[in-house]
């Protein structure tokens, strides 16, 4: 039996344990995970404003996460709440979002430089 065949035999008993799913069900679109909201609206549609607005939205989202993390951390430090784990999670999310934004920026700059080096 091949590796893929053995995975398929393992998959069916696991799918039978999930309520409302059959082995023939397969995701045809975004998968809804508990506790994680799907983005609203049609994500495949082009946004007005083009490329600049995409980066503007990215920076705004990262800024929002950092402000949220600062607010939660401030509440913990002032003793308004004892949700230290929520503060740590918010800070980690903000840090990861910032790192992702920097990596995207680096890739865009690298791509631009590669295009500029191409002989015309």
TrEMBL record:
Q: Name the segments for region: Disordered.
A: 15-35
Extract the GO molecular function terms from the UniProt entry. cytoskeletal motor activity; structural molecule activity
Which Pfam families does the entry mention?
FliE
Determine if Zinc-finger is one of this entry's keywords: no
Instruction: List UniProt keywords, sorted A-Z.
Output: Bacterial flagellum, Cell projection, Cilium, Flagellum
Question: Which biological process terms from the Gene Ontology are attached to this UniProt entry?
Answer: bacterial-type flagellum-dependent cell motility
- Annotated localization: Bacterial flagellum basal body
Q: Does the keyword ATP-binding apply?
A: no
Q: Name one GO cellular component term.
A: bacterial-type flagellum basal body
Which family does the record assign? Belongs to the FliE family.
Question: What's the protein name?
Answer: Flagellar hook-basal body complex protein FliE
Gene field: fliE
């Amino acid at each position: 039996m091949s590796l893929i065949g053995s995975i398929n035999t393992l998959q069916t008993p696991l799918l039978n344990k999930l309520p409302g799913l059959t082995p023939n069900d397969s995701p045809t679109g975004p998968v809804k995970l508990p506790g994680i909201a799907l983005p609203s609206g049609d994500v495949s549609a082009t946004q007005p404003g083009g490329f600049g607005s995409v980066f503007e939205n990215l920076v705004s989202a990262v800024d929002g996460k950092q402000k949220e993390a600062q607010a939660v951390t401030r509440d913990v430090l002032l003793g308004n709440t004892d949700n230290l784990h929520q503060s740590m999670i918010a800070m980690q999310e903000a840090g990861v979002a910032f790192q992702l934004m920097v990596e995207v920026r680096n890739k865009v700059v690298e791509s631009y430089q590669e295009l500029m080096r191409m002989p015309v």
